Amino acid sequence: MIIITGVAVKSNGSVYSLPKPHRHMDVLALMKRNDIPLVPREEGFILSSGRFIDRYVALALAAETGQLNGIGNGKWLNSTDLW
To answer: Which pTM value belongs to this model?
Structure first.
């Protein structure tokens, strides 16, 4: 079964990620420290398969795999809904 394993940010065709229990702000801080542009960007999650998915797709997957520990806003997934 494929599950969400970390937070991720996609920018200029590259994906930057950190494993749980990191937050998106941790990835953004890492990018900033390494002089990686923060815009344009898309925030999402990284899967156990290594694939990036956006926050909307991630919400459905987390619900399907039983990974949710909260409902959040019910529109997209936040890391706080997982860990």
So the answer is: 0.94
